[in-house]
Design goal:
By secondary structure, this protein is mainly α. Helix content is about 85%, strand content about 0%. The protein is globular. The relative contact order is 0.12.
């Protein structure tokens, strides 16, 4: 049974991670497009700030509702071979969410002037007017992105991962085309228009697959008395509160950054995007793939197998994200320079972004683990515990942010470091509580994985750093070819060193990760 679950997770993870890899690469192209076309300017700060509230709406209504309520309950019905009842509950949930999203979009557009100060208290005059305009244009994107999220929840429950992973690729393409094609014509508004078009494409690519599954069972009804709906509401409300608490961290950092030097929001945004690359590909890929399996094991009452699967997911995440974090710390300047330094994005902007990236690095490992632990709680249909942990974490983040801004000269780096420290606190608390709940979670095998990965990663980082320094003496750092050769050669040496050391240290996670690669190569062949 354990091997069967691992195979299911491996198959799903390989599909999800490959698609997310493509999506993240396009995400970097998108961020580069923004940096190249518009630069690290006040206008770009406003554009990124405009997304804060729409993103919050999406996270609360779809991220929280799907992860905490819809997938566990819907999967529970499917696990009991009761597809008709599953779709009755799903119909009510989807209809209700659609109406709520429509209402929020309309209210958001109407009351944008009152909402704008919540995400950019440091903006005034033309900046504030632009913020209001961009928020109004991008609110419809939330509607379609949220609908795409609902489609994702249905498909994930059926163990279908490809189309939900392809959706963000279409979304990123819309933004990239908006920057490069519309940007030179209508300025930053081109990004907003591209965002809306990309969101519509994200929904459009998934909806037909959902429609094929729903056409036999979907019903245009609203039945709030059904026990399945009541269960979803009971699970969803604490999760929404918890996610709103976590999103407050982002809004707090952004508001504080709007009071710093021009370009601070852009530096934090780009550094955070770099951190989200391994976080999105590996941690989210593993957690997304393991979630339906965990929900199914909970529905069947297989507690011991649940604990083993969850622990396995955490070990794989540590095995991959620890070297990713260390590698970014050692190669932060070459990576930022290669990806973003062009057009209106200059060397000083590279250093500012790399500085923020350094302080985000410790939080990468913690945030990666939280992707798995949060889904562990949700699989157990416990949404209250993450809320309690999140509330304490946001207080810690706020106090640390103020402390670093008032007592240090770290600037945007201080906000990034506060976020990282609060994330580590969140991770430790979640692991401790979840470990007591399921037993044998943080055991000797996990400590061994963490310790061995850390040792191998430090040696890897040193090797990569000296490789980059050596090549910098022989390559032109003013050309993209030179930057490309330096960065990828250093990364290649680092990966090779880490893999060799993982074999020397006899890490069992190596076989699983290499198995994912072999599976994808066989699939292509």
């Amino acid at each position: 049974m354990e091997n069967e679950n691992r195979e299911q997770v491996a198959k799903a993870a390989s599909i999800v991670m490959l698609a997310i890899l493509v999506s993240r690469i396009l995400g970097f192209i998108r961020e580069r497009a923004v940096a190249e076309v518009f630069g690290r300017t006040a206008t770009t700060d406003v554009f990124f700030a405009a997304f804060a509230l729409p993103d919050l709406m999406y996270q609360l209504l779809v991220g929280g509702a799907l992860s905490s309520a819809f997938i566990p309950v819907f999967t529970q019905y499917l696990a009991k071979d009761d597809e008709k009842e599953a779709w009755y509950v799903a119909s009510v949930f989807l209809n209700t969410t659609f109406l709520i999203l429509l209402l929020i979009m309309v209210l958001g557009v109407v009351f944008t002037p009152s909402l704008a100060p919540l995400v950019g208290m440091g903006f005034s005059g033309e900046q504030r007017d632009l913020l209001v305009l961009l928020m109004r244009v991008t609110f419809p994107a939330v509607f379609f992105t949220a609908l795409a999220g609902l489609c994702m929840g249905v498909l994930h429950s059926y163990q279908k991962f490809l189309l939900p992973a392809l959706g963000p690729i279409v979304y990123n393409m819309g933004q990239i085309l908006g920057a490069y094609i519309l940007g030179p014509i209508i300025g930053i508004m081109g990004m907003a228009v591209g965002t809306v078009l990309g969101a519509m494409g994200n929904f459009g690519i998934q909806f037909p697959a959902v429609l094929r599954r729903a056409k036999k069972h979907y019903r245009p009804i609203l039945d709030f008395k059904h026990p399945g709906i009541r269960r979803m509401v009971m699970l969803m409300l604490p999760a929404i509160v918890g996610l709103s608490i976590s999103q407050v961290n982002v809004i707090i950092s952004q508001n504080l950054a709007s009071t710093l030097e021009t370009g601070s929001i852009v530096a934090l945004r780009l550094a955070n995007r770099l951190i989200n690359f391994p976080l999105g590909i590996f941690a989210m890929g593993i957690s997304t793939a393991v979630f339906p399996t965990l929900a199914r094991l909970t529905a069947r009452g297989e507690t011991q197998e649940f604990s083993r699967t969850l622990s396995f997911g955490l070990r794989i995440v540590f095995f991959i994200t620890i070297p990713s974090a260390v590698g970014m710390a050692f190669l932060r300047v070459p990576i930022v320079r290669l990806l973003f330094e062009s057009g209106e994005f200059y060397a000083a902007d590279t250093l500012a972004t790399a500085f923020a990236l350094l302080f985000y690095v410790p939080g990468l490992i913690a945030q990666s683990a939280l992707q798995v632990t949060t889904r562990g709680f949700y699989s157990l249909q416990d949404t209250k515990t993450p809320v309690k942990i999140g509330f304490v974490t946001v207080v810690v983040n706020f106090l640390l942010s103020l402390a670093f801004l008032n007592w240090t000269n770290l600037g945007a780096g201080g906000l990034a470091f506060a976020y990282s420290l609060s994330s580590i606190f969140n991770m430790l608390l979640a692991l401790g509580i979840l470990g007591k709940r399921v037993g044998s979670l943080v055991d000797g095998r996990m400590w061994a994985t963490f310790a061995k990965s850390t040792i191998a990663s430090l040696l890897m980082g040193i090797s990569a750093y000296y490789t980059a320094s050596f090549l910098e003496s022989y390559l032109s750092m003013t050309s993209k070819l030179g930057q490309l050769l330096q960065t990828f050669a250093a990364i290649g040496v680092g990966v090779a060193v880490y893999l060799v050391l993982s074999f020397v240290l006899k890490m069992e996670e190596t076989d699983f990760v290499l198995g994912l690669v072999r599976n994808k190569l066989k699939a292509r062949g």
